[in-house]
Amino acid sequence: MTLSARLSAIDERIADAARRAGRDPGEITRIVVTKFHPASLVRELHELGVTDVGENRQQETTAKRAALDGLGVRWHFIGQAQTNKAAAIRRDADVVHSVDRVKLADALHRADVDGDPLDVLVQVNLTEDTGRGGSALGDAEALTEHVLSLPSLRLRGVMAVAPLDEEPSRAFARLRDVADRVRALAPAATWISAGMTGDFEAAIDAGATHLRIGSAITGPRPDRG
Ligand SMILES: *Cc1c(COP(=O)(O)O)cnc(C)c1O
Q1: Backbone phi, then psi, for 164, in 5-degree steps?
Q2: Atom in ligand 1 nearest the alpha carbon of residue 225
Q3: Protein residue with its CA nearest to atom 12 in ligand 1
Q4: What are the chain's domains?
Q5: Which pLDDT tens digit goes with each residue over 165-176?
Q6: pLDDT tens across 155-166, in order?
Q7: Ligand 1: which of 10, 36, 56 to mutate, most ligand atoms within 8 Å of CB?
Q8: Residue range 17-21: average pLDDT?
Q9: Residue 102: is it exposed, middle or buried by C-beta count within 10 angstroms (0-12/13-18/19+)?
Q10: What is the rounded CA–CA span in Å between residue 161 and residue 126?
Q11: Residue located nearest, by CA, to atom 13 of ligand 1
Q12: Inter-residue contact 54 to 65 (CB < 8 Å)
């Protein structure tokens, strides 16, 4: 299958899942995760009408953005972020999905150079493994309050990755609950970033507004993926 055919097939599945859930497919943003693929793939996707791409490493994001200078796509940073990379991430990403601790929020805020607010999401960890990215579920509201206190960050919602060893719909139900609690503090924070190649239909069912889909569209990742 060509890239174009894979993209259309996924978009059809997204639309079908949305309709089954009684949702408008138009309210769902499909982010194509291009990590480990060359910048030329982002250009091809853009030619096919893709407006939103996802990357999980700062250096790769910076390199691709430079290689594709001025290409009109939104860059979503979805990876675990080191505090010392915050300035580069802020410069090169349009949205940061992975704000999972106060220190990172502070570093992103301090890196503001132009007064344009940065869109961010609070990432929550749906597993018991504290080594995984994301704030503990019980800390999400405190982190939300902290992000709201930083005027250069605009909180858009919550993000999570479903655990491998659990039914995704159960994990996404917990995410939805956190999303509700965050929205009670920040009514404008309506985004739910969830759903990957293996579980995006369950995520749509649970209210996801932003899907992060990689390999089903791009094909397998070269190495490291
Ligand atoms: C790689 C990645 C994805 C996409 O994964 P696929 O299974 O290839 O769709 C989504 N979210 C995050 C955080 C990722 O790192």
Answers
A1: -75, -25
A2: 1
A3: 78
A4: 3-218 (3.20.20.10)
A5: 999 999 999 999
A6: 999 999 999 999
A7: 56
A8: 98
A9: middle
A10: 7
A11: 78
A12: no
